[in-house]
Amino acid sequence: MAAVKSQPTRIVIVGGGYVGMYTALGLQKKLRSGEASVTVIDPQPHMTYQPFLPEAAAGSIEPRHVVVPLRKVLKRCHVVTGRATKIEHARKAVTVELADGHVAEYEYDVLVSALGAISRTLPIPGLPEVGIGMKTIGEAIYLRNHVLSRLDQAASTVDPELRRRLLSFVVIGGGFAGIETLAELEDMARYALRYYEGLKQEDMNWVLVEATNRIMPEVSARLGVYTVEQLEKRGIKCYLDTRVKSMEGGHVVLDDGTEFDSDTIIWTAGMKANPMLRNTDLPLDPRGRVQCTAAMQVVGLPGVWAAGDCSAVPDLSRTEEDPTATCVPNAQHAIRQSKLLAKNIVASLRGKEPKDYFHKYLGSVAGLGLYKGVADVFGLRFKGVVAWFMHRSYHVMFMPTVNRKFRVFVDWTQALFSGREVVALGQIHEPKAEFDRATKS
Q1: Which residue segment(s) compose the domain that 96 sits in?
Q2: Is residue 211 a contact partner of residue 178, using CB atoms and an 8 Å limit?
Q3: Alpha carbons within 13 A on the beta-carbon side of 236
């Protein structure tokens, strides 16, 4: 007679982003009562839908509406707010630094590595001091307040050199994140200028710097050229096949000899695997990602799974051409992988075979500001308002929970009739400043 388990299978998910949250959602729907317990570990108590960060930064969407509270949607899971610092599969334990500073261990029977990638930086002088990232909701809120506050300061100064510096905005990196951030923020700033007496559009200096000879490699070269042309028509300077040599003190020096001062330097030049994975005994590929089978099982480790940006899952739609091809780190793969991953874990628990992940790349969509966009879907290319509508439709479809879909749709509807919100709430970055001044007066 088979032994009966005395307690539910302990499933621990490290990471609460796309893969972590969607996998946990799938598990809590499919698992029978008492079959397994699910614990989700992440430093933040929410999941951020990153494709909407540029619109949140530009005031088209309320920032709170692009994040999903983990405890609210994962009602049958245990959510731990803490940062995983070590995984020892030999002991089946995850070490976590909790939000209150304490260190705890969580033992597991089944492990899911769902860590998200982090920004890939380069040893450029000045980058750590003046660079601003664009991967978190905090960075999106900060950028919005920062850009609008530069307009406020520029409208108040009589120093022409300072005004030029304040009105120079640089985005480094021509992938989707960089292009959408650049386009949305420029669109917002141009809209806001109507309320600033003495400032004109030609006073602003928006700059894109991309190290390769094209932008957004996920779309066709023709659409990439079209996007650059549209950005340049808006007065944005695009430096392709160009690298930043230094940015010390906000003084930007490009390798073609161009130099200028800027008070806003946004870094979106790629991602890399989470360095925490180096503090595990999981098998990693040369890029630091967890090595997986096509079913998202970690190679050689039964009961361990991985998906998303920090996993090397074979891309079966391309392996005939390139046997080493793996899924690229984007939201399209992460969302679809997590839905199958939940099914595979449940199947494995019930003695069934997991299924291989197969998803043929359908195309890409990108927003370039209000009523502007590009799309490359099923080999068909779209531009302008049609592509913009496709971009919004695609992402609201994959935005988790009906609640968040509805809130985002309402935000868009309100903006359609009342325009963008152009208020800088810079005080949130120094909330005690006024109180401190009051106590000293």
Answers
A1: 9-119+272-350
A2: no
A3: 28
Nearest of 42, 137, 50 to residue 334 by alpha carbon: 50
Residue 308 lies in a domain: yes
* Residues 17, 72 share a domain: yes
- Residue pair 69/45 in contact (Cβ under 8 Å)? The answer is yes
Whichever domain contains 133, its CATH number is 3.50.50.100
Residue with tokens 């302990």: 10
For residue 182, being part of any structural domain is answered with yes
**Rounded to an integer, what distance in angstroms lies between the CA atom of residue 387 and that of residue 331?**
18
- Note every long-range contact of 64-67, with CB atoms under 8 Å and residues 24 or more positions apart, other chains counting: 65/404, 65/407, 65/408, 65/411, 66/137, 66/140, 66/399, 66/404, 66/408, 67/137
Do residues 164 and 145 both lie within one domain?
yes
Model-wide pTM > 0.70: yes
More confident residue, 219 or 347: 347
**What are the tens digits of pLDDT across the range 115-164?**
988 888 899 999 999 999 999 999 999 999 999 999 999 999 999 999 99
By the 8 A CB rule, do 207 and 168 touch?
yes
What is the distance between the alpha carbons of residues 288 and 274, in angstroms, rounded to a whole number? 8
Buried/exposed 296-318: b ≥16 CB within 10 Å, e otherwise: bbbeebebbbbbbbbbbbbbeeb
- 313 close to 294: Cβ distance less than 8 angstroms: yes
379 phi-psi bin (left φ>0, alpha ψ -120 to 50, beta other): left
